[in-house]
Amino acid sequence: MLVDDLKSIVGPEGWTTDPGDLQPHLTEWRDIWTGKTLVMVSPASTREVASIVRECHKAGTGVVPQGGNTGLCGGAIPDQSGNQVLLSLSRMNAVRSVSPNDHSLVVDAGCTLASIQEAAQQVDRFFPLSLAAEGSCQIGGNLSTNAGGINVLRYGTARAQALGLEVVLPDGTIWDGLRSLRKDTSGYDLKQLFIGAEGTLGVITAACLRLYPSVKGLQTALVSVDSPDGAVALLADLRHRMSDQLQAFELIPDRAIRYVLRHFPSARFPLEPTSPWYVLMESINSDGNEQLEHQLLACLDAGLISDAIVAKNKGEADALWGIRHAISEAQKKEGASLKHDISVPVGTIGDFIRAADVAVTRHLPGVRVVAFGHVGDGNVHYNLSQPAGTDPASFLAQGEALASLVYEVVAGLGGSISAEHGIGQAKRAHLLQYRSATEIHLMRTIKAALDPENIMNPGKVI
Ligand SMILES: Cc1cc2nc3c(=O)[nH]c(=O)nc-3n(C[C@H](O)[C@H](O)[C@H](O)COP(=O)(O)OP(=O)(O)OC[C@H]3O[C@@H](n4cnc5c(N)ncnc54)[C@H](O)[C@@H]3O)c2cc1C
């Protein structure tokens, strides 16, 4: 029987069917997606992953890979049938090797993002992928969702950090593509297929990742701007004058600040809280002088910003980032929320927010918009909180209608309905609607070629 075979592959430490143990793996952070499973297996090696997938392939049973379970679109949650196997990568969490001179490291897929940042720091190198869930999300999940985060402006997304992958294919074959080459044009770049595939084409078991020289002279500043258009103008101005030294540029609305201050009493906001919008930014300044401060004074004179503070030390910088990273948690405490993780051309962010605000407010008066995020990448987390004092269930029931309104605005601006979090279960129908027939055909052709039995994360993405 399949479950017995799987148990014997992973041994007593590597499986559970206990409802209490399974609970956090069968529901997501916002409790929106829940599922059931035959068994959760937690293999300790690539060989064990391969054996599990081979057995599931023989049995025609679906396999759902799960990393830190911080994705917010139901991608890592099995369906309600109870017939799928949940495959947790959590026990595969070793840093296999670090090569400072090659500026690379090889890690198991179950390493948390924070542990990889630390491994890089220990050899005086920098791993730039960074996001609020970095203490619990895993690199396998980051690669499978092509995660972005705060440093994409300078370093690119997870895709740009991957030099090579090791993947267990849907029939249980192990593909060892753990190369650290910077240049390689020998045939198709196969690793790219698995990055952003959300576990539908195979299980990523290890990755060779790009490291960078450690960052010297990082400066963090918080500034007030009058509008998202003002933030975009400021971004263009600073990038031009600072020779592209900006590494992060995050838009924050005053509503998000109010939420954070209300729910995290220890948080301190160092500017006058009178502006409708703020930008939190970080720049690299290897000369060690105060270049960001000088540039911001010029921006103040030019009327691009109305207030600014530059962190004097790491403690102050961390406190500013603490506010930014607390937004999602604070919004959760405000009641039910709907998230739209979209991207549009950077210059149209203001147009997007204006048009989407009109559309959602007309549909649901009182809805509270919290639009924040990675303006430097044209990526806005266009989140909606339920109208104050209303029933969460009736608000969530409006989810599809509100998403359609938001995505129509996105499509009109040539944007994407998913900039970071992926498609999962949440956006499958929208993907079919907003990608062309040719693109959907190509995606289905790739899926059928690699996974003809449809055992890898069935019901997700495509
Ligand atoms: C507070 C908060 C802030 C966030 N901020 C950001 C942000 O700034 N930028 C961003 O991009 N995302 C953000 N996210 C979303 C989330 O953290 C990312 O999508 C992250 O990359 C998911 O990693 P994970 O390990 O939790 O993956 P999971 O949620 O476990 O899985 C995500 C998908 O990947 C698949 N998968 C997981 N591991 C593997 C593997 N080894 N092989 C094959 N498939 C696999 C799963 O089946 C699923 O489809 C945030 C989430 C939270 C809760």
Quick description:
The protein is of the alpha+beta class and 462 residues long. 35% of the residues lie in helices and 20% in strands. The structure holds flavin-adenine dinucleotide (FAD).
Describe the structure in your own words.
This protein has 462 residues and is an alpha+beta fold. The protein has four domains: 2-88, Uridine Diphospho-n-acetylenolpyruvylglucosamine Reductase, domain 2, CATH 3.30.43.10; 95-213, Uridine Diphospho-n-acetylenolpyruvylglucosamine Reductase, domain 3 (2-Layer Sandwich); 218-329, Alpha-Beta Plaits (2-Layer Sandwich), CATH 3.30.70; 335-423, Alpha-Beta Plaits (2-Layer Sandwich). The protein has helices at 2-10, 19-22, 46-59, 113-122, 139-144, 152-155, 158-161, 191-194, 228-241, 254-263, 291-301, 314-325, 327-333, 349-363, 392-396, 399-412, 428-434, 437-450; strands at residues 15-16, 39-41, 63-66, 85-88, 95-99, 104-108, 125-126, 162-168, 174-177, 203-210, 212-213, 218-225, 246-253, 277-284, 307-310, 337-338, 341-343, 368-374, 379-385. The strands form four sheets. Strands 12, 13, 14, 15, 16, 17, 18 and 19 form an eight-stranded antiparallel sheet that branches. Strands 5-6-10-8-9 form a five-stranded antiparallel sheet. A four-stranded mixed sheet has the order 1-2-4-3. Helix 9 (228-241) runs antiparallel to helix 14 and helix 10 crosses helix 13. The longest helix has 15 residues, at 349-363. The two termini are 30 Å apart. Bound molecules: flavin-adenine dinucleotide. Residues 29, 64-72, 75-76, 89, 109, 131-133, 137-138, 140-142, 144-145, 147-149, 198-199, 203-204, 328, 420-421, 424, 457, 460 line the site of flavin-adenine dinucleotide.
